[in-house]
## 1
Amino acid sequence: MHIGFLGLGNMGGPMALNLIKAGHQLTVFDLSQSATAQLVEAGAQTVASPAALAQSEVEIIISMLPAAAHVKSVYLGADGLLANLKAGVRLIDSSTIDPLSAREVAAAAAKNGNPMLDAPVSGGTGGAAAGTLTFMVGGSQTDFEQAHEILSVMGKNIVHCGASGNGQVAKVANNMLLGISMIGVAEAMTLGVSLGMDAKVLAGIINTSSGRCWSSDTYNPFPGVLDTAPAARGYSGGFGTDLMLKDLGLASEAAKQVGQPVILGALAQQLYQSFSAQGNGGLDFSAIINLYRKDT
Amino acid sequence: MHIGFLGLGNMGGPMALNLIKAGHQLTVFDLSQSATAQLVEAGAQTVASPAALAQSEVEIIISMLPAAAHVKSVYLGADGLLANLKAGVRLIDSSTIDPLSAREVAAAAAKNGNPMLDAPVSGGTGGAAAGTLTFMVGGSQTDFEQAHEILSVMGKNIVHCGASGNGQVAKVANNMLLGISMIGVAEAMTLGVSLGMDAKVLAGIINTSSGRCWSSDTYNPFPGVLDTAPAARGYSGGFGTDLMLKDLGLASEAAKQVGQPVILGALAQQLYQSFSAQGNGGLDFSAIINLYRKDT
Amino acid sequence: MHIGFLGLGNMGGPMALNLIKAGHQLTVFDLSQSATAQLVEAGAQTVASPAALAQSEVEIIISMLPAAAHVKSVYLGADGLLANLKAGVRLIDSSTIDPLSAREVAAAAAKNGNPMLDAPVSGGTGGAAAGTLTFMVGGSQTDFEQAHEILSVMGKNIVHCGASGNGQVAKVANNMLLGISMIGVAEAMTLGVSLGMDAKVLAGIINTSSGRCWSSDTYNPFPGVLDTAPAARGYSGGFGTDLMLKDLGLASEAAKQVGQPVILGALAQQLYQSFSAQGNGGLDFSAIINLYRKDT
Amino acid sequence: MHIGFLGLGNMGGPMALNLIKAGHQLTVFDLSQSATAQLVEAGAQTVASPAALAQSEVEIIISMLPAAAHVKSVYLGADGLLANLKAGVRLIDSSTIDPLSAREVAAAAAKNGNPMLDAPVSGGTGGAAAGTLTFMVGGSQTDFEQAHEILSVMGKNIVHCGASGNGQVAKVANNMLLGISMIGVAEAMTLGVSLGMDAKVLAGIINTSSGRCWSSDTYNPFPGVLDTAPAARGYSGGFGTDLMLKDLGLASEAAKQVGQPVILGALAQQLYQSFSAQGNGGLDFSAIINLYRKDT
């Protein structure tokens, strides 16, 4: 299939590459020449603007952009995709943005005759390279089914979350809970250790009790508990504090828009913000435990 | 074996009963006559005071009391157990109290020649009746092994958490995390639903993602998600809000004693306190989601 | 002077009226016909659009709009003020919006040859009617001095806060502190009363001690302490919970934009959000004490 | 008058000295020999135990002890004051402890025929030396009036807060509010400065607006705003972080005992705890602003 791809950053680049490897014809756009160069080398064509991409013969366009402002500008701008796109071309936005913006863009696309899905991902750059991302997809059942094959090239878990915007809802809700749970585990582990327990023993008990959670059993932030977690390698790699901060910002913003309190969510956001302001934004988010450790 | 049992409340009563059913000889004490009557009917002897219990021929004494003040008074008081107990009698305190008090009492017991374990439980009144409690045990390896058989009569999971007091540490650390996670799930679920998602679909996504936790996959607070959770029966039964509040109070108190911050833990305590002050202390703690639901 | 006025709501209406009463010639615009009708009756002319206002002979334009999106649209839109305004016409935006948006609009105005001040107010609808508002003004010293006379018609305190955007900064910083202090007073008062103190005695002590603050000595939220506070009239009138919520939202949004933690500020926002979600958004913000009172 | 004084630390020492200077006869007790030596040099007699103090000819006993455990032990212990005191001797406890403990001890004293006041102070070591402390006094009107003259020797503000325990209530309520306000000011000031305002200008606006409070106008934590505040001398002297932490601990403990939520109070406690755990417990509590400053 002839696919257009917009936004070739750390995530978008490897995703586009997997589409080429699977035999698809790609036309790509990115502001960075070096980003496109790599894809061209792999066989992609390149265009000079979103408008040019829209005017090319692509059947579907996938975008992976940093924030809602970029998504709105690329899709809704005077020189953007919708203004230049013929009806029927399908759209998938894999950017992580707030649900209301996602719905606004999808509604404009629908009006233009372009079925659109929001399909934010989780799984990190590792999952993007390996083609094992999770896609949380919002949009109609039909559009979801049509997109399934292509998304499966880039991901392993393709989950339909309901109508337009719900892919974003699922992502911000899950990641807000993740951000809270990680701090909860950080507090429980440091409290236990401060009171004299062995970290590994405590994690073992929690992981078979009612405190059990992914942040404890798969990604425990206390060094020495899990060999495979970022805590075992100085909190490098993984899911950066500033990315968690971005998602918590989306969660509290979306909550504000619908008048929904998110008390622990907002506090968690502030704690990651404090940690980031101390210069730790590039560390894996589980490093938040360093706010609590007295021995470091 | 001849066992002394002190404190025959909602938990202690059924626990003592299971010991009788297993063929042990029981001598019991409780301030409430009706509580002892039931045990006497089942074959237990009764005594008039902790001192009398200490002076009887029991080989081991198990206590299940409401708070540290009771434990200290019963064990350390002028007319208490230690003042009247001969060396060698073994002690197990299954009360949930702060770790430092547990260590203080255990140290006094050791000085008196009485090996002591702290062994708080989880599993609720249901688990107490069914003999399926989890015991989190602090004390020496030898003492733990000696107590294992008797604890197994009352529980299914008997976990050694390390030295004296660590049973309490494990319990408060786990339950603090549980209290935080439950509010985190409540916020994530209500945020998602306020933004237009179906609760069951959202829970399904969370339960296979990084937000996965016991509070979501086993005890989800949103009505309609799980048939077996308290949310399905109006938040009756289960683990009461005021019990969670007590455990969070122990956690923040223990944290204060060792100068350890527990930021989300303290906020969670205040939120359960708010919910309890509104008259909801008797509801299962997952009812905390009602602080967040706009549709109720 | 010939003044243009945009946005004739609860605040803007009375402000514009005071300008007419002071002898100025007014040309006004508002989407609501009934809002303009009142001003026309008082002697104002009316125009059909922001563009028409810009093309009229006004020497200065004052705007009072609900949110940053409106301000950006009215000033920066294709049919907006700047696109239709000749250089030299001075601009004053009295809307309360985030500082970065205020600076963005002011920079565009400067580029267009139109000196612009941000001048958000405090003092409520009462102050707007009485002409006793406080204006917190951001912009150059010269522009501030030129605007002083006109602002003095509508307000009593005209404070220069520094360069462009700083009027907004001063307002969100002050109001965030106000939102926090009010909850602090609510907690201190209810704690004291729950512990057995008389509310008036407690307030008297606080007001001569280190807890002294405007929320306690001038606007005490506990009923019976001050005859003049909203607490004495069922929390009607005053500064609405939803207005406080809006300002706290601006504060946390601005904080996010500059990576500044505001931990209590964000928590205060969530507490007012909870209170508003329970249907209390129209009550004076000091009614937040009802989240804490067990006797009501 | 012949006065007994118990507890000659940083506060009690200078207070006792002022009583001697005013011509009173003092009999003192402290575990530290060097503490008593200084008073003996000034003319005091010394005794070897609280019991001996009780058995001496004192007409009134004043105590100034670190925590409730000491107060209970000194007053209620088997060898304590009450067990050795004849009826009629009056008692004043100036320790800062939780209100319920204060009431428990006062009730026991009353039963023993000894009228007792709780009279915690504020004003720091400076005020203790200068005799300018504030006394917040709980107890009967008669007892308060009788004690007024002696308290006036040590303090300038002698405030009757109502019945027994209310001196402690007033102190914890005021200081909890103070702890919250200070963090509120820290957040407002750092937010404003991060957004580009001058700290002194911002403080000036806040101090004439609704954010006005003692923490801003008298004790502003931002360096350069006030020459007289601890911020001007590296946060040395003043009211230590660990003392604020103790008072917030008393507030949240008392709140727990009466089931009263104190949400910001508990969060403030955790933030001072975090700051103290980083090694800053000895700095003035206004140094908490360093948790927020990105430029330091």
Note: Chain A has 13 helices and nine strands.
## 2
Amino acid sequence: MDECYMRRALQLASCGREHAAPNPMVGAVVVCDGRIVGEGFHRQCGGPHAEVNAIASVRRPGLLERSTLYVTLEPCAHYGKTPPCAKLIVEKHIPRVVVGCRDSFEKVDGKGISMLRQAGVEVTVGVLEKECQELNRQFFTFHQKKRPYVTLKWAESADGMVDFLRSTLADGAAAQLSDATNLALVHRLRSRADAILVGGRTALLDNPSLTTRRWPGRSPQRVVIDTHGNLSADLRLFPARVYLTATDARPDYERLSGTTVCRIARETSGTLPLHTILSDLAQVGVQSLLVEGGPAIHQAFLEQRLWDEMRVEHSPLRLGGGVAAALPFGAVVVARENIGGHVVEILRPGCG
Amino acid sequence: MDECYMRRALQLASCGREHAAPNPMVGAVVVCDGRIVGEGFHRQCGGPHAEVNAIASVRRPGLLERSTLYVTLEPCAHYGKTPPCAKLIVEKHIPRVVVGCRDSFEKVDGKGISMLRQAGVEVTVGVLEKECQELNRQFFTFHQKKRPYVTLKWAESADGMVDFLRSTLADGAAAQLSDATNLALVHRLRSRADAILVGGRTALLDNPSLTTRRWPGRSPQRVVIDTHGNLSADLRLFPARVYLTATDARPDYERLSGTTVCRIARETSGTLPLHTILSDLAQVGVQSLLVEGGPAIHQAFLEQRLWDEMRVEHSPLRLGGGVAAALPFGAVVVARENIGGHVVEILRPGCG
């Protein structure tokens, strides 16, 4: 039965998808004598936590003293924007708490469970643990690895190309490998990311605006890696956060309002310092990053094993040559869907 | 560890979403000495089952004799379009099989598990059972209840209306409560349903075509309940399957090519004979039905408890009066998402 109520708590948690960030999604259920008597979820960052909402929803508060509270994530033990939930649970004399998974956020990290147990509350941890971790995998990746959750995304032709060969803008427009439906889905992906990253070559050749035009929702912060210092301030992606590896360059976008230029050195091996870039993004609060390309950038993330998810769209078009897509080695297909003749694969890192 | 491999089998199963129907989605994994040595899923109705694909993918067939096969659904025991999988497993001397959930399809229904056990195979049943059942809930509903999986769908205004008050076509166009993104998502819902149903009033007033124009994919079969026998043959939804309760009517769509007219009696209480309609649809192979309205039709499905899922879109618009939406009593919100200011709720029947 614990699993049954935790499943309900997971449903509730996911209702907070829109506004919980940067907090995790959390759901809670109060069960008394085999009946659900209270439910809640974390609706909005800064607002009450799931446990508070679930407890407040119980019409006869006297029931709490013989109820079990199910919560997808360990209750907090610290004063943040709201008082600690573990304290509230103790004050309400709730005798038993079932926790989906521990919160690896350093201010919690077992302290909520300890506080409850020290007060004599019976605590069970790890019911539907994988599901509870999966729900907040972006949040957990961010706190455990101190870097954003990284999603790589590209569309490739039936012969494995992402574009025609183009060396200058005069070579014409980029290959159109996606279609309207898939572009809308990519814009949904954008609307769910805190930031979006492209390389300087993509910025120059495609001049993308990287906004969320085809799906309602906010546009993510734009990030570009500029290895040559040759981007111009009139590109559509500005204002942006620029990681500039050409140390002596004085690019004309440096004084753009809203644009931050971070000068970083390439590693001696010549590889892109992605670890440094991701650490810096984490420090400015970027929990999730969508990497849109091009293939050299994707390959660098793959080779340095700094990625968590991949969306590859396989277009039925053939280009007959051009710029080859990155090789997704070490990746396992976890979902596949045919959307209007375009096969979209979602991949995750394999164990190997 | 069983759960870990079953989770992988579930991922694989879902890759068959497009073409498995009317068969269920099934995934399978072969594990030898703690390593995955084979994987497969049921790609297409009529093609090999998941177990066959997984077994065929093992590069060194000798490993099978000391492997465990994980499969999300009970292996079949009958000759259908392909030979029984249970037989293949026995022939390959696979010593252990882990089954996600039993197949309630009457030609299997425990017989696959029995066949394996009688041949000396060790069988574990019920690993991630809920997840395996959830994946194929349309298939299971169809076989267990002998009726399609019913999804109710509507959009309502901030004040709970689905339309202006209109008594004739001359009253003007219907209220536009949805937006482009949500219309596209509704068309995706249509593309995943075998059939789509509306009432005669909606057919007449809105003259919908009920096709999948805003999402790639096939259009579902169109079904209309005609209580007055007053539909005209030039409505856009024809050809369709019509359930006609006006017994003495001779409507002009009766001779339309591709249109089937089923004459059914209203129950003596006056309620719509939805049970009869759903049984008939099941007999012509409709596994999933999307009910688009109007509210009287929705209310009938709700009152007769003949529904499995609901998608309600809450528009920010106010109509200030009009046709009220159905009351979703007995429904529990299992997911909620804000899509461009429109809050979309997914509901399921509660236990009560």
Note: The longest strand of chain B covers residues 331-339.
